[in-house]
Design goal:
- There is one protein chain.
- By secondary structure, the chain is mainly α.
- The protein has a single domain, classed as Farnesyl Diphosphate Synthase, CATH 1.10.600.10.
């Protein structure tokens, strides 16, 4: 971060939780879990290499991920992340946009300094994931305009928005370790399913989750009128509750908590929450099945399995 303009260094360091908005050491930040970086290192170790060989890739994917977080908060106008004010709400939208761009550029620059064939392939993976993240975000914006699509279309959007960088992470780690193509493909398939499971679980959490855990206000997605998986599944359910939800949906955003709670109850009655939880469970099982087929050390498989379960369920 020290290579950036000082104003962007301060904004990015604030986002990472290293210091307060005025540059003083922070006492209130919840640090990042570095899940994507962990996936990079685990993939390298599973392929038989030292995790140190994959550190440049881990840094790059984590920088790119945090680029997307800062921009997501701008797009969604979210005021909180990890229980702390977001970058745009502290420093303003122009600074947040530039800070996110700086992180993406630094991700590419950092990995490009490793001048090997494996690193060049990993860099192609990262830029392709970057493109897919943008495509997923664009599709998500269309959903927020009220487009009613099939559940499969929603999952296709999530495969770009959420799964792409997870699959990229294990791909980068495996490639930097010199893994064979079967291992690379199987790891990426597992993380594609992981991303879909995580998106479905996160959609449930952003409506019914504990604010102390999520770091967001209760019913946050409903407050913004977002078309998430539980909402979509309820709307296409052809149930009385689903039809009642359709009639009220235009009134969701900005209403008081009791109105939003009624909306949440209708989603449950129409089967939307159960449908999203089912997708999360089925995709997690599919991801774990891919892991079972990997020819990697048992310790690596167990580490991946435990991490996948934690990502989707928040439980060890």
């Amino acid at each position: 971060m020290d290579t950036l303009h000082p104003h962007l260094t301060r904004a990015c360091g604030y986002h990472f939780g290293w210091w307060s908005a005025d540059g003083e050491p922070s006492q209130d930040a919840v640090p990042s879990k570095f899940l994507r970086a962990t996936l990079v290192l685990l993939a390298a170790e599973a392929a038989g290499a030292s995790h140190t060989a994959a550190v440049p890739g881990a840094v790059a994917v984590e920088l790119l991920h945090n680029h997307s977080l800062i921009h997501d908060d701008v797009i969604d106008r979210d005021h909180l992340r990890r229980g702390r004010r977001t970058v745009w709400s502290v420093f303003g939208t122009p600074t947040a946009v530039l800070a996110g761009d700086a992180l993406a550029a630094t991700a590419v620059q950092h990995l490009s300094q490793v001048d090997t064939a494996h690193a060049r392939r990993a860099l192609v993976m990262i830029t392709d994931a970057f493109r897919r993240i943008c495509a997923g975000q664009a599709a998500d914006l269309q959903l927020e305009k009220g487009a009613l699509v099939a559940v499969e279309d929603y999952l296709h959007m999530a495969a770009d928005k959420t799964s792409a960088l997870l699959a990229c992470s294990v791909g980068v780690g495996a490639v930097l370790a010199g893994a064979d193509e079967v291992t690379i493909d199987r790891l990426q398939a597992a993380c594609t399913d992981l991303g879909l499971a995580w998106q479905a679980a996160n959609d449930v959490e952003d409506i019914w989750g504990d604010p102390a855990v999520t770091g967001k206000p209760p019913l946050s997605d409903l407050r913004q009128g977002k078309m998430t998986l539980p909402v979509l599944a309820a709307l296409v359910s052809d149930t009385p509750a689903g039809r009642a939800l359709a009639a009220r949906r235009a009134l969701c955003a900005g209403h008081q908590s009791e109105d939003l709670q009624h909306i949440a109850d209708l989603i449950v009655q129409a089967g939307g929450r159960a449908a999203a939880e089912r997708v999360a469970q089925e995709r997690l099982i599919s991801a774990q099945n891919h892991l079972r087929e990997l020819k990697v050390p048992d310790a690596s498989r167990e580490a991946f399995t435990a991490l996948f379960r934690f990502i989707v369920t928040r439980s060890a």
